[in-house]
């Protein structure tokens, strides 16, 4: 005999937003469509990334995020829809049949390759870019690297609903790319998922 799964919460004292939650419509048979997912990384695939630029991207600690773009990040819309239907804003957890789960700092570190130790990242708060010529000075590659890292931040790490805006509050933090690689970007990325 299979155990009975109760899809809705048994105790609504914690999940106070249940009446407005998408799951109410799903369980009532009113919704069966996939969500529309924003894909901010599309424009990043058109950037020309020179090996010398990648050296600075690695130095600043963003190579793992770069790999997401270069690897052709494919979204599984069905999985995203299923997870969205189980996400609870009240507790910041996914409510699954086997229990609650959430995204941890370790998940951010493993999936994005971001540093989760070091100085904190603080602050409030695309377009196509042709790469520098092969014989450019290091300063040109450093500047291009900063522009690319800002694009990664605005498209993947700290994306907002606009899809084409990058908050410049992070620019001072990547002024010195060596120092940028010591910051705790993983915690900043996790907190931006709020």
From TrEMBL:
Q: Which residue ranges does the record assign to the Aminotransferase-like plant mobile domain?
A: 61-123
Q: Gene symbol?
A: LOC110794285
Superkingdom to which the source organism belongs: Eukaryota
The record lists the organism as: Spinacia oleracea (Spinach)
Q: What is this protein called?
A: Protein MAIN-LIKE 2-like
InterPro entries registered for this protein in UniProt: AminoTfrase-like_pln_mobile (IPR019557), MAIN-like (IPR044824)
